[in-house]
Specification:
Blueprint: H1 2-6, H2 11-21, H3 31-43, E1 47-50, E2 56-60, E3 72-77, E4 99-102, E5 105-108, H4 115-129, E6 138-143, H5 151-155, E7 165-168, E8 176-180, E9 183-192, E10 195-197, E11 202-210, E12 215-216, H6 228-242, E13 246-253, E14 258-259, E15 263-270, H7 274-292, E16 300-305, E17 311-313, H8 315-327, E18 331-335, E19 343-355, E20 358-367, H9 370-386, E21 390-397, H10 407-420, E22 425-428, H11 435-441, E23 446-449, E24 454-455, E25 463-465, H12 466-481
Helix pairs in contact: 2-4, 6-7, 6-8
C-alpha cells in the first residue's frame, strides 16, 4: 500500500516517510528507529551521533554561498502514538504502518498514521540527503519519547546543539506559525478496594461505549468530543442510583494524550431488575448520544449478557469511585484572557482501569500558565483524595512562552506572505511542543514551529493532506534560502 504513497510529490519527502513508517517506533521502545536514523546519517557520510538518552543528531555543512548564514537546527520527534480500532488486527511492536491514498489525504488502515511527527522527520531526512537544495549549515535533532513524557527533550543537555535558529516541524495546520505552547503534568490516582463474592440471583452484563472520534488531548480538547470514560461513568452513576449494580471490571481509554474512544465494563444486576436496567441504560445513553450527536454521530452502546465474574467491587468503594470520576474535571477548564480563542488550561481523563482489587485513573493536565496548571492539578488531586485515592503528579514539562519579537518569526511571516500571497496565523497552541523544554538549556536559540496539515492526530482517523505537504516543503525550502547571516 505504501507504493502509491511513494509516487506522491515531493517524492523525496514521501519516500522518506514510507521508509520511516516501515520501522516500528512506539514511544519508549525507539531502539529500532534510533538505529535507523543513525544508519541513515552515517550512510550519507555526515557527522552522526546520539546522546546518552537516545536523541539522534546529524550535521550537514552549508551549500556553496550559504556558509556565512546562521546554522539551523531542524527538530522533530521519532516516536508515534499507537492507537488502533478494536477490529483492527495489528501489532505496533513488529509491523510497519499500512498506508493508502484517499483524495488529498494519506491515511492508515485502522491505525494511527504517524504523520505526527513523521512528516517532520521525513522532511528533515530529505534535506539531509539532498544534493541540489541550497541551505545554510544544518543540524538535525531527532528526539525520542515526545508522546509519553518528552524525556528526549528533557534529557538533552546544554552544549550539544550548535544551531542559532531552531525550526520545530511539529505544528498541524499549514497556515499557522506557532510561537508558544502549553506545559503539562500527568496525574495518576490509585486506590485499592475489597473484592466481594458475586451475589446470588444476578445477571452479568458487559457494557461497551465505542465509536467515538478520539483525538489529540491538546489540539482537540476544545471541540467538545466525547470522552468514553466520562460517558461510561455517567451511565454507571445513574444505574447505581436506581439499581443495585456491582462492578467487576472497567477498562477505558489508553494513552494519556489521546481522548479516550472506548470503555468496557463488566457488572452484575439483580435478575429481577435486569430488563428494567437494560431499558433505562439505553434510555440514558440515547440522551447522551443526542447531546453529542453533532460531533459524535457514530457513538454506540453495546449491552450484552455475559458470564458471571468471579468477584465484584465492594459497594462502598464503588460509590466513592463513581462519584470521584463524576466530579473530576474533564475538558476545557479555562480559556486564555491574553490570546483570543486559545485554550489555557484543560484536563483529559485518559485512562480508567478497575480490576483485581485495584483502581487506576490517569489524567493529563495542560496549561499555558504554570499557576493555572497547578490550580487544576490541585483540584483533581483533592477530588480523588476525598474518595480515598493516593495521587501522584509526574512527568511535568514547561510551556513555551511566546516571543512576538522573534527574529526568525519575522523571516517566516515575510516569506509566507511573499510565497503564498497571504498572511499566516501567528498562534500559540494548547498542545505540548518540545520548544519550551529545549529552551531551558538553550535559551539563546531563536525557536519557531510550523508544519503541514494533519487531522485526527492520536487516533486511527489520523491523516495528512498531500497538497499541504507540498506547501510545507515549498515553504521550508524558501525559509532556508532566507536565513539571515
Amino acid at each position: 500500500m505504501s507504493k502509491e504513497v511513494r509516487e506522491l510529490e515531493p517524492k523525496n519527502v514521501w519516500n522518506k516517510f514510507a521508509d520511516l513508517n516501515a520501522v516500528p517506533r512506539p514511544s519508549k521502545k525507539e531502539e529500532r528507529v534510533i538505529k535507523f536514523m543513525l544508519d541513515f546519517g552515517e550512510s550519507l557520510g555526515l557527522q552522526t551521533f546520539n546522546d546518552e538518552v537516545g536523541n539522534v543528531i546529524i550535521r550537514k555543512p552549508a551549500t556553496v554561498g550559504y556558509e556565512n548564514k546562521k546554522m539551523v537546527t531542524l527538530q522533530s520527534h521519532v516516536d508515534m502514538v499507537h492507537q488502533k480500532n478494536n477490529d483492527t488486527n495489528f501489532d505496533f511492536d513488529t509491523e510497519g504502518i499500512a498506508m493508502f491514498v484517499e483524495g488529498d489525504w494519506v491515511k492508515a488502515n485502522g491505525t494511527t498514521l504517524g504523520a505526527d511527527n513523521g512528516m517532520g522527520v521525513a522532511t528533515i531526512m530529505a534535506l539531509l540527503e539532498s544534493t541540489d537544495i541550497p541551505h545554510p549549515a544544518l543540524e538535525a535533532l531527532f528526539t525520542i519519547d515526545e508522546e509519553t513524557g518528552m524525556t528526549g527533550a528533557m534529557g538533552l543537555k546544554g552544549g550539544v546543539l550548535q544551531g542559532e535558529i531552531l525550526l520545530n516541524l511539529d505544528t498541524e495546520e499549514d497556515d499557522e506559525i506557532d510561537i508558544g505552547c502549553a506545559g503539562g503534568v500527568d496525574i495518576t490516582a490509585k486506590r485499592t478496594y475489597n473484592e466481594k463474592s458475586v451475589p446470588r440471583g444476578v445477571q452479568a452484563f458487559q457494557i461497551t461505549v465505542k465509536g467515538l472520534t478520539g483525538g489529540h488531548s491538546g489540539m482537540d480538547i476544545h471541540k467538545g468530543l466525547g470522552n468514553a470514560n466520562k460517558i461510561m461513568n455517567r451511565l454507571l452513576y445513574l444505574s447505581s442510583e436506581k439499581y443495585t449494580i456491582r462492578i467487576a471490571t472497567i477498562e477505558g481509554g489508553s494513552l494519556r494524550n489521546a481522548i479516550p474512544r472506548e470503555s468496557v465494563v463488566k457488572l452484575v444486576v439483580d435478575k429481577a431488575h435486569s430488563k428494567a436496567f437494560q431499558k433505562d441504560i439505553n434510555t440514558w445513553f440515547e440522551i447522551v448520544k443526542a447531546e453529542k450527536n453533532t460531533v459524535e454521530p457514530d457513538l454506540e452502546l453495546v449491552l450484552e449478557e455475559t458470564k458471571k465474574p468471579r468477584k465484584v467491587m465492594g459497594i462502598g468503594s464503588q460509590e466513592k469511585v463513581l462519584k470521584a470520576l463524576y466530579a473530576a474535571h474533564n475538558g476545557v477548564y479555562a480559556m486564555s484572557l491574553a490570546i483570543p480563542d486559545l485554550v489555557e488550561t484543560s484536563n483529559n481523563i485518559a485512562r480508567v482501569i478497575l480490576k483485581n482489587g485495584k483502581v487506576k485513573i490517569g489524567c493529563l493536565t495542560r496549561s499555558s500558565v504554570a499557576t493555572g496548571k497547578d490550580d487544576l492539578a490541585n483540584t483533581l488531586k483533592s477530588t480523588f483524595e476525598l474518595a480515598g485515592f493516593e495521587v501522584k503528579l509526574s512527568g511535568e514539562y514547561p510551556g513555551w512562552n511566546p516571543n512576538p519579537d522573534s527574529a526568525i518569526l519575522k523571516v517566516l511571516e515575510a516569506q509566507y506572505q511573499k510565497v503564498f500571497n497571504e498572511k499566516p496565523k501567528v498562534v500559540a497552541c494548547h498542545a505540548g511542543l518540545e520548544c519550551g523544554i529545549l529552551g531551558q538549556n538553550y535559551p539563546e536559540i531563536d525557536m519557531i514551529s510550523y508544519g503541514p496539515t494533519i487531522k485526527g492526530a492520536h487516533s486511527p482517523d489520523e491523516r495528512v493532506s498531500i497538497s499541504s505537504v507540498q506547501k510545507f516543503w515549498k515553504f521550508t525550502l524558501d525559509i532556508l534560502k532566507n536565513i539571515p547571516e
